[in-house]
Amino acid sequence: AKPFAVAPLERSELLEETSRVAKAARQWNVVLDAEADIGRLRSVEGDQGHTDSELRAVEARWVLSLVPAEASSLLSCANSPLASAEHRVDAALLAVRVAHEIGDFRLAHEAYAAVASIPSEPGASNRSLLQLVYHTSFGDPHTAITTALSMREGLQSHDIATQLRVSRNLGVALCFLGHSDQGFALHKHYYDVASRLELTHWQFELASSCCLAAMNTESFELAEYWYDRASEVRRPGVASGVDLSHLLSGLELALQRKRPTEAQAVLAELRKKGTGESIRVKAHMVGMETRVAQMDPSFQSSQDSIAEMRRLLKLAIPLLSADVVVLALGEALRRHGHLEELRDDLRQYLSSRRDRAPFPNQVVHLAHACNLDLADC
Questions:
Q1: Neighbours of 301 (CB within 10 A)
Q2: Which of 296, 297, 311, 349 is CA-nearest to residue 327?
Q3: What is the DSSP letter of 357?
Q4: pLDDT band per the 50, 70, 90 thresholds, residue 147
Q5: Helix axes 52-65, 71-79, angle to 10 degrees
Q6: CB–CB of 212/245 below 8 Å?
């Protein structure tokens, strides 16, 4: 359609629609190309106002690089009296999501505070989602649970696109908050909806989320079933947090099933994605790489590796991302016979862990190895 969109307004509308559709399909490079053209048009026209377009561009650059270069611009949008309430909330939500990845508590608190006084409007799904994400990751877990249950009750009042988007975020939050069964049920329901509508992108995201919910309760057979369902409709090469989580789930399943060749293949694919500045992704990757190496009973981590895992553990505990790295670090310390250090690290993990989902059963074995009574933590 580009050759026929000659007038600036026509071209701008076409590019906006291209960008919106590409974002929905997680085609972030297409989003960037469209937004670059939109930016040039806006520059010619002298339009410097706040738009959805600028947020899509920021999100695309973040997803593709995991480098939070534009966090300050998100705060500017969230605080701007010239921006609409919807734009400010959307900017704050993106800022809180970035903060969760990089462990920037100041960014999260400032973004949430910037829009806290904006009155909530009926049907404003992103306002509720902001409250849910913020309190799940940084704020009050009890407020997060109350918000989650309220959102679940009102979910079907939204259009189907909003239901699908919110249900995945809502289900993930329920899992983090210790309600994995409810999170799984929600994901399963909307997976069935997406299947009936032949929305393969949402089938992938929701099947992957079902897998993750099942793994939270160490129901590995169920998790493998949903991992296979997601793999059937997965589009390799699509940059998204869900695709990353899907591969991490596959790697965890390979570890649980003691399949070293499969584990190495998934790990190689994960390495291609990079970690950027995401503490959450770095903690997962370092933990997973170590655990794959530990499939060899004779493997011993270096002292430098142990120090790096301990550093990441301290950063990841508040980010709902400590389980993988604590298992790797704990096993490394156990193999070295550093049982006092193992006790200290497990105590810190258990006392500070924000994730309300059950901790992995392997933690029990590590605690037993160093004579740590879990009831005392």
A1: 20
A2: 349
A3: S
A4: very high
A5: 150
A6: yes
Whole-model pTM? 0.86
The half-sphere exposure of 151 on its side-chain side, counting CA atoms within 13 A, is 31
**Closest by CA position to 167, among listed 205, 122, 218:** 205
Structure tokens given for 316: 């990841």
Longest dimension (CA), the chain: 74
**Which residue is associated with the tokens 């070295």?**
336
**Residues 215 and 249: beta-carbon distance below 8 Å:** yes
**Average pLDDT, stretch 80-89?**
92
Q: Which ranges of the chain does DSSP label H, i.e. alpha helix?
A: 8-24, 28-45, 52-65, 71-79, 85-102, 105-115, 125-137, 141-154, 160-176, 180-196, 200-216, 220-233, 241-256, 260-273, 279-293, 303-316, 323-336, 339-352, 361-369
CA 163 → CA 156, 189, 194, distances in Å? Answer: 7, 11, 11
Taking the C-alpha atoms of residue 185 and residue 172, their distance in angstroms, rounded to an integer, is: 11
The pLDDT mean for the chain works out to 89
CB 171 within 8 A of CB 213: yes
Q: For the ranges 47-61, 195-209, 215-229, which has the lowest average pLDDT? A: 47-61
**What is the model's pLDDT at position 357?**
79
Q: Comparing C-alpha atoms, which of 142, 146, 84 is closest to residue 115?
A: 84
User: Which has the closest alpha carbon to 107: 311, 243, 314, 277?
Assistant: 277
pLDDT tens figures, 169-198? 999 999 999 999 999 999 999 999 999 999
Distance CA 376, CA 372 (A): 8
